[in-house]
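ENTRY TYPE: protein
WANTED: fold as tokens:
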Amino acid sequence: MRFGTFEVNLLSRELRKYGMRIRLEEKPFQILELLLECAGHVVSRKALREKLWPDTVVGYEHGLNTAVNKLRDLLGDSARCPRFVETLPRVGYRFIAPVVKPGMVAAAETKKMLLVLPFEDLCGDSEQEFFADGLTEEMISQLGQMNPKRLGVIARTSAIQYKFTKKSIGEIAAELRVDCVLEGSVRCNGTRVRITGQLIEARDQAHLWSATFDRDLHDILDVQTDVARQIGKALATELLPD
């Protein structure tokens, strides 16, 4: 199974990151195994106890908490701001990151994945920041409708986490397992706005496409829709060749 930058082989009991093996004790590995098999669903503390500590009563709570903390440490995860393992107090845990399971690998490998990073507002104006956010959302919507079977677009809720990130394109692409990243900026001068977009290939971080659009801000929604459509048409040639 794959998630983020990690791969798990349940047969050989191995966890790898960027192809390099990470040593993980048996109890944390068993917890990870159960969470992955039920990804998106809650695994109760009771179910974990029955599976991992069937004959133990004393010390079970401490053992479970310790094992979960060890798992989080190896994944670089946090209970306060989880990317992988979410805690439901007094109930259990849930694996919240996208998981590619064995039967899904072939389909996933033939489908390109694209991330639209939040467009950067260079105007220094809160009103234009709303415009940039709206443009990002419109871009995700337009690109997501192009050809869902051949092009997957990362959801806005996942993309927005990188709005003020200092991470590199390579780091972001590896975390979300995307093939390409679209980034852009918004600059303004009075009622004029300049929108710049760049498509970057995640593998070698090379520029595949870039363009600049100058518009009058008479109708913000029309500008967002028009520019998103123009970029969508241009990217179709790059991402979905005949």
User: Anything to note?
Assistant: The mean pLDDT is 88. The longest strand covers residues 180-189. Residues 220-239 form the longest helix (20 residues).
